[in-house]
């Protein structure tokens, strides 16, 4: 029997649907293979954090003041040289020769001159002035040579103050590969900017289905190093949590909780601590040998406690651009049963910036940042906008032009040098290094 048009249409639709099923299966298999390849790449690239062998503690360092370079002392006044003998004023020209009657002077008995007459004698006054000037120059030279007098600070005051060495890492936009439980995510960044007096640090890590996690720390540099003023924590779509370091009230204030804490010297937040450690190691890397532990008081978004950071040793970190030698630091357990762990690797070839950071939660979740990019120190942008004058020569005072001398009266007598010391030695220009 001949088939109807309806049967022919049904057969055509059946063949088309059958073809689309094969296309869908092919696409699904391709996607599964791509996902498997990505999973293998992510798990193959991630570096598992092996249990570190914690060396025996050999030294415990507490928060202390950093070394600050004092301004150089004002130069001492140079001893005045012996003044030149006073010049005899030139006599006025005599009138034209005229015939005058000369009278012989009367004879007087030779008597000793009176004291007031001797003092008024030109020769005596010249001699006394010379001796007084010489004695005054000698006493001025003795006072200028004496160290630590009232006018000139001692040499010890010009030396740098004692303290730990401290150098802030160079500014830069740092890019990292991020891993969540070993799976590679979108790249994360660390925005780090410092001019030696203020700093800003923003850590951003994107996470799938949750949103970006960011941590912001802003502050300045004081006598104990980095001094956070504000710490902001943003987790995905949750509202921001603020931690304020109130230096006037000496308190740490939270927005997540009404509680507040006393603000000790050298206190850090969770991420400024990393750059504080980098600045200390950058200033004196030989101090941080295996077993050396330094304590930091660290404030979170609702609490604060002391973090003992110990030096594990030098290790090799594998990045996409090659292998980097770095020094491994680890936070020791803060109390019994503390399973949260933080590991930081600082690379000397990168200016002691962090090349790898890993945080391990008590449930085993790992969040990792691994250096991505050129294995070189990032170029520090000019954040201050002012020219660098640390190496410029000290400006000198402009030379004073002497007034024109009277050729007829002062050509034979050089002017006596001034022996007066500067009124305010602190106003003298000085080359003070920018810092720490």
Automatic annotation (TrEMBL):
Membrane-spanning intervals of the chain: 20-40
Indicate, by first and last residue, each region the UniProt record lists as having compositional bias (Polar residues).
Answer: 149-159
**Low complexity bias (residue ranges):** 112-148, 386-399, 406-427
Query: What does the UniProt keyword field contain?
Result: Membrane, Transmembrane, Transmembrane helix
- Span list, region Disordered: 69-164, 380-436
Among Pfam families, the record links this protein to: DUF3108
Keyword Repressor assigned: no
Enumerate the InterPro entries for this protein. DUF3108, Formin_Homology
Q: What is the protein named? A: Uncharacterized protein DUF3108
Name the source organism. Answer: Paraburkholderia eburnea
């Amino acid at each position: 029997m001949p088939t109807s048009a309806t049967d022919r249409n049904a057969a055509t639709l059946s063949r088309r649907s059958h073809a689309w099923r094969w296309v869908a299966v092919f696409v699904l298999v391709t996607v599964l293979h791509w996902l498997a390849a990505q999973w293998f790449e992510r798990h193959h690239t991630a570096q598992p954090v092996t249990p570190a062998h914690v060396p025996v503690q050999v030294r415990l360092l507490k928060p202390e003041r950093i070394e600050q370079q004092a301004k150089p002392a004002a130069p001492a006044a140079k001893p005045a040289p012996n003044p030149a003998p006073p010049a005899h004023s030139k006599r006025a020209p005599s009138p034209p020769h005229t015939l005058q009657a000369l009278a012989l002077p009367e004879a007087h008995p030779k008597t000793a001159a009176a004291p007031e007459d001797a003092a008024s004698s030109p020769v005596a006054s010249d001699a006394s002035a010379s001796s007084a000037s010489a004695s005054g120059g000698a006493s001025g030279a003795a006072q200028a040579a004496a160290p630590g007098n009232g006018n000139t600070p001692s040499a010890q005051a010009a030396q740098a103050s004692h303290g730990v060495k401290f150098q802030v890492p160079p500014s830069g936009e740092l890019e990292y590969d991020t891993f969540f439980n070993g799976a590679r995510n979108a790249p994360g960044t660390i925005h780090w900017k410092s001019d030696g007096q203020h700093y800003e640090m923003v850590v951003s890590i994107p996470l799938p289905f949750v949103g970006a996690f960011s941590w912001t720390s802003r502050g300045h540099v004081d006598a104990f190093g980095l001094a956070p003023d504000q710490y902001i924590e943003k987790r995905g779509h949750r509202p921001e949590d603020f931690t304020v370091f109130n230096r006037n009230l000496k308190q740490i204030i939270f927005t997540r909780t009404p509680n507040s804490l006393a603000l000790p010297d050298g206190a850090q937040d969770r991420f400024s601590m990393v750059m504080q450690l980098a600045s200390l190691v950058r200033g004196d890397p030989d101090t941080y040998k295996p077993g050396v532990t330094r304590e930091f008081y660290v404030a979170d978004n609702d609490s604060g406690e002391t973090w003992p950071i110990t030096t594990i040793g030098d290790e090799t970190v594998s990045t996409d651009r090659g292998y980097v030698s770095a020094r491994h630091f680890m936070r020791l357990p803060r109390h019994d049963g503390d399973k949260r762990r933080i590991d930081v690797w600082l690379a000397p070839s990168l200016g002691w910036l962090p090349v790898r950071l890993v945080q391990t939660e008590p449930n085993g979740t790992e969040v990792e940042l691994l250096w991505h990019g050129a294995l070189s120190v990032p170029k520090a942008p000019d954040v201050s906008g002012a020219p660098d004058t640390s190496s410029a020569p000290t400006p000198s005072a402009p030379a004073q032009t002497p007034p024109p001398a009277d050729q007829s009266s002062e050509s034979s007598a050089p002017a006596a040098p001034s022996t007066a010391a500067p009124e305010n030695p602190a106003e003298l220009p000085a080359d003070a290094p920018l810092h720490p």
